[in-house]
Write a structure and sequence with these properties.
CATH topology: Hydantoin permease
Radius of gyration: 23 Å
Low-confidence stretches: 4-20, 508-520
Strand order of the largest sheet: 1-2
GO molecular function: transmembrane transporter activity
Main location: membrane
Number of strands: 2
Number of helices: 21
CATH class: Mainly Alpha
Structural class: mainly alpha
Distance between the termini: 41 Å
Membrane topology: Multi-pass membrane protein
Helix content: 55-70%
Subcellular location: Membrane
Keywords: Membrane, Transmembrane, Transmembrane helix, Transport
Length: 520
């Protein structure tokens, strides 16, 4: 029977928890305390949906059709690519529940406490690239819409937009997990309703006869489009998937975590891409304009009275995605050994984002081409890391040894040379089977594709690459699958030994003695 003192203590704990959820999160990469692990699997829907309901998903459809495939082929590519890539995110998210730490800290179990810094740098660069890209999209969209409204879309508008967008992203990221989760649940409704309104207002732009007239392409072209969709959606987020599940209750269902992560991330892009395919196939001018200003071009078919609501929704959706990226890139920075508070890490990445946005908006001649080239380049080792990490999760039957994640002398060791070798070999093979589709805009990336000619899959010419497989970017998928299979075969014994040691230690010490809050 509870006493008045017990009731008072319970109320005090509840009040303290509520207060923490409204304040700046100071937790960095340390293990989340058991009392803080109150999230439910369905809570994962909000951040993933809000970050991916951006109208940029519609713009991506034009790049899919750019592979020279039909609407039916493109539709299959978009649905399968989006769902499969976010399913992989969901599998990584299970590790967050098992270890209550950020993704790149949990990655230490597979790569070693110090060896993790290799994929950690790749992860940090990917996150920085994505969040900067989303910020740039928001600034350019603001400029385009202001220009159409006659409010001036020149330098002054871009400067103000860059400052406001960067401020929103950085402030939300500094605030941390609890405030971000609350904001994302609100943004989900705002951006979702605005997107539905966009569809209703532009339905007359869809011409089914034009859509069905688009000719079909080769299955190698379909593969290339599939890789682009997977890289641009789920695989672009996979390195941060566990960051948002580390607050899950320890008894939460792993299957439910996978489902809500996949459903939340995939449902909006799948629908938006489908509608984007209809628009792009119906209007060639729309497809061409998207290459320079994706979101702004989508606004050109809207009635003037809806431009401001569309702009607000578009910017908020892009900011939402960037917030997830910069929050996680800050955690990744800490996992690399930078010893500053988590809010300060978010500020550092925010400064980089702001500088990157200013450079692209005001000085760069083109950025979509180099960005996509950059994305495919990092997509190869990131896919390899994902294959290794998913296999490592599948091999483990126990929760992570949380203390060992921060101790190079612990059971995970300083370096796991098997994982690092798999990452290196898979990346070298993968890079040899992808090509730079933007040779003129990103000439620094023209070294890729070196295995295509020797294997008879493609041939480099003065005008680019020839051959059915040349632009399939099969190297990304190969890196993912090869790393997964190699890890299952080569690391099974090592993982079993780690868990046998864990069982032996638990028999002496007891599992509850090792659940304390561990710091870096």
């Amino acid at each position: 029977m509870s006493t008045p003192a017990d009731a008072a203590a319970s109320r005090q704990a509840t009040t303290a928890a509520a207060s923490r959820r409204l304040s700046v999160e100071t937790t960095g990469i340390e293990i989340i305390d058991e009392s803080e692990r109150t999230a439910r699997p369905r809570d994962l829907f909000w951040p993933w949906f809000a970050a991916n309901v951006s109208v940029f998903g519609m713009a991506t459809a034009s790049f899919v059709l750019g592979f020279g495939i039909s609407f039916a082929q493109a539709l299959a590519v978009c649905v399968v690519g989006v769902v499969l890539s976010f399913l992989l995110c969901g599998l990584i998210a299970v590790a967050g529940k098992r270890g209550s730490a950020p993704t790149m800290v949990l990655s230490r179990a597979a790569f070693g406490v110090r060896g993790q810094k290799v994929p950690g740098v790749i992860s940090w660069l990917t996150s920085i690239g994505w969040e900067t890209f989303l910020s740039i999209m928001a600034v350019l969209a603001t400029s385009t819409i202001f220009d159409r409204l006659g409010w001036g879309g020149g330098t002054a508008t871009k400067i103000i937009a860059a400052v406001v967008v960067a401020a929103m992203i950085v402030l939300a990221s500094v605030a941390g997990y609890h405030i971000i989760m609350k904001l994302q649940s609100i943004l989900t409704w705002l951006t979702g309703l605005a997107t539905l309104a966009y569809v209703a207002l532009t339905l007359d732009e869809v011409h089914w006869s034009a859509v069905t007239a688009v000719p079909a392409g080769s299955w190698q072209a379909v593969t290339g489009a599939l890789v682009m969709v997977m890289t641009g959606f789920g695989l672009g987020w996979i390195n941060i998937a566990a960051d948002w599940s580390r607050y899950q209750r320890r008894d939460a269902s792993g299957g439910a975590i996978v489902f809500w992560n996949t459903f939340g991330g995939a449902v909006a892009p799948a629908l938006l891409l489908t509608y984007g395919l209809l628009l792009a196939a119906s209007n060639p001018k729309l497809e061409e304009g998207i290459a320079a200003d994706p979101v702004g071009t989508l606004a050109t078919i809207l009635p003037t009275w809806f431009l401001v609501p569309f702009l607000v929704a578009a910017v908020l959706a892009l900011v939402s995605g960037a917030v997830l990226g910069i929050y996680s890139s800050g955690l990744t920075l800490l996992s690399l050994g930078v010893r500053i508070p988590r809010p300060a890490a978010a500020l550092v990445d925010g400064a980089i984002l702001t500088l990157g946005t200013i450079w692209v908006v005001f000085f760069a001649q083109d950025f979509l081409g180099p960005f996509q080239s950059f994305l495919i380049t990092l997509g190869v080792p990131l896919a390899s890391w994902a294959g290794i990490m998913i296999a490592d999760i599948a091999l483990r039957r126990r929760d992570y040894d949380e203390a060992a994640l921060f101790d190079a002398r612990g059971r995970y060791g300083a370096f796991d040379w098997t994982s690092l070798a798999v990452l290196a070999v898979a990346s070298v093979i993968g890079w040899g089977l992808v090509v730079n589709s933007f040779a003129a805009d990103a000439s620094w990336n023209n070294w890729q594709g070196y295995l295509l000619d020797p294997l008879g899959l493609g041939h480099e010419t003065t005008d680019g690459w020839s051959g059915d497989w040349a632009y399939s970017n099969i190297g990304v998928l190969l890196a993912l699958v090869l790393s997964f299979v190699a890890t299952l075969l080569l690391r099974r014994g090592r993982v079993r030994r780690q868990e046998l040691d864990d069982d032996a230690e638990r028999g002496v010490v007891g599992s509850d003695d090792r659940r304390g809050k561990v710091t870096s």
